[in-house]
Amino acid sequence: MSKKDYLVFAKMIREALEACPLGGRTRGYLNKPLRDQLLSLAWDMTEIFNTDNPNFDEDRFMAACGFDYLPPPHEMSLAARWVV
Question: CA-to-CA distance for 76 and 45, rounded, in angstroms?
């Protein structure tokens, strides 16, 4: 897969986040179960994409999905690093 393909998937996740009820991407107001499902989906995709392409940039993909970055990786588990 190519960068173009990864961007299409990221756009789909970002648009789903923005279409969520209760304020879209506004922190603290997003439908938590849906946000968690989208985060889990995006995270699973990064594992597949990393296997597919060693140059895949997980941080860039997650940001393109609409997730905000939290602390540095060494300070937090990988799954807990991303929030909406």
Answer: 20
**Six token digits for residue 10:** 């990221």
Give the position of tokens 């609409």: 66
Per-residue pLDDT of 32-80, as tens digits, reads: 678 888 888 998 999 999 999 988 988 889 989 988 765 555 555 555 5
Three-class SS of 16-82: HHHCCCCCCCCCCCCCHHHHHHHHHHHHHHHHHHHHHCCCCCHHHHHHHHCCEECCCHHHCCCHHHE
Instruction: Report the alpha-carbon distance of residue 39 to residue 81 in Å, rounded.
Output: 10
pLDDT score for 17: 85
Amino acid identity of residue 82, one-letter, is W
